[in-house]
Amino acid sequence: MHKDVPSKVDWGDVESDRDVKYAFQIFFGKTNEETVTEFKKNVTMRTSDLKFMPEIPFKYYMKGFLDFIQQELYEEFDKPDVMNCFVTLVEEKLMNNPYEIIPLIDLIEPTLASICMNQDRYGLDEEIYGDFKIKYKNISSIRKSYI
User: Angle of helix 132-144 relative to helix 105-117, nearest 10 degrees?
Assistant: First the structure.
């Protein structure tokens, strides 16, 4: 196994939580490069998997999700869903498990700001996805309380 890929120990007890067990089945032993196919198949489900992962796997695979976005490895027609999933995941993690995402926030910030401040460029129709400038203000406010 690649040295940075989270180990079984990093995942902890995957049997006691159905969501963690499913994420483990999809991601365990894979490098971030190997998860691109999984994100392409169903970004909504893979984002949900990230949400339920234990801390170490989350931090590792969140970086892979960020690479997926920055390298534009998604299909053009999936762009709005990919961006919405990313921003929503960041917001939810900050609200529910901030200690897991705060160490990554400086890495995430430029992409997050780009998406939220340029909503139209990413095909994020405000009537469907809401106002991302408001989401960004919320995220920034939560973030400031931890820095």
Answer: 160
Measured between its terminal Cα atoms, the distance across the chain in Å is 35
Residue 14 three-state SS: coil
What is the distance of C-alpha 125 from the center of its chain? 20
Give the tens place of pLDDT for each residue, 2-30: 569 999 999 999 999 999 999 999 999 99
Predicted TM-score of the model (pTM): 0.93
138 burial type by CB count under 10 A (0-12 exposed, 13-18 middle, 19+ buried): middle
CA 75 to chain centre: 17
Q: Return the structure tokens found at 10.
A: 């990093």
DSSP secondary structure of 74-103 = S-GGGHHHHHHHHHHHHHHHHHH-HHHHGG
